[in-house]
Amino acid sequence: SALTQPASVSGSPGQSITISCTGSSSDVGAYNYVSWYQQHPGKAPRLVIYDVTNRPSGVSDRFSGSKSGNTASLTISGLQAEDEADFYCSSYTGSRPPVVFGGGTKLTVL
Amino acid sequence: EVQLVESGGGLVQPGGSLSLSCAASGFTFSTSWMHWVRQAPGKGLVWVSRINTDGSATAYADSVKGRFTISRDNAKNTLFLQMTSLRAEDTAVYYCAKDLSFNQVDHWGQGTLVTVSS
Predict the structure, then answer these.
(1) What is the mean pLDDT of residues A15-33?
(2) Exposure b/e, B56-86, CB count within 10 A at least 16 = b
(3) Which one of A2, A72, B49, B60 is least enclosed by Cβ atoms within 10 Å?
């Protein structure tokens, strides 16, 4: 089943926010293959975190990832206006389906 | 630069068929696993299908199993999704996506819209 994310989070410029992604012992809790994607309106998603904590080249170090048990988290520090977007987590499952996504979180920068 | 360019979307009647293509460039296509991911209007991302490097192993979401077929032509650097028995709930933007590792996607196409309606 899909991973659970809050529908929305918000923060002011310069602040930090954290988005949670809760799965189960069959996906998030079992593997360190959690990724996060940022999607601006009308655009394709963009990978911002992979393997729970790793940032692809070109992604700001204001983005960081972590995991505890069955819950993964994405933290964005020093919020900027351009961070406003939808964020999705996903996890490898090792079974069927082989990957699951969260329902998405809308980040609003106040 | 990695580029994934989808084509083939459009309006189709319920029960109809449509074939999507994804032209890949900027990386070694033949050694990359590939995915299709869809997004219904105003909704979240949903994984649809995956194919391994030589096309010998495929996987599908339960919602499309038996109706959709993923395939690839490594000589032409192209990924395909053949969709049959289409339903209104298949209406979505379909993204072609390159696998980084363990079903994590590092590059996405711009998407192609499929609308199933009478």
Answers:
(1) 97
(2) eeebbbeebeeebbbebebeebbbbbebeeb
(3) A2
Characterize A69-105 residue by residue with b for buried, 16 or more Cβ atoms within 10 angstroms of its Cβ, and e for exposed: ebbbbbebeebeeebbbbbbbbbbbeeebbbbbbbbb
The per-residue pLDDT for range A32-89, each reduced to its tens digit, is 999 999 999 999 999 999 999 999 999 999 999 999 999 999 999 999 999 999 999 9
Q: Is pLDDT of A1 > 70?
A: no
The shortest C-alpha distance from B11 to chain A (Å) reads 19
Specify the pairing of strand A105-109 against strand A8-11: parallel
Which residue of A28, A47, A59 is the best one to mutate when testing the B interface, meaning the one whose CB has the most B CBs within 10 A? A47
**Which two tokens mark A22?**
């809760």
Most B-contacting residue of A99, A100, A105, A106 (CB-CB within 10 A), to test interface: A99
* Confidence class for position A2, pLDDT limits 50, 70, 90: confident
Number of H helices, E strands in chain A: 0, 9
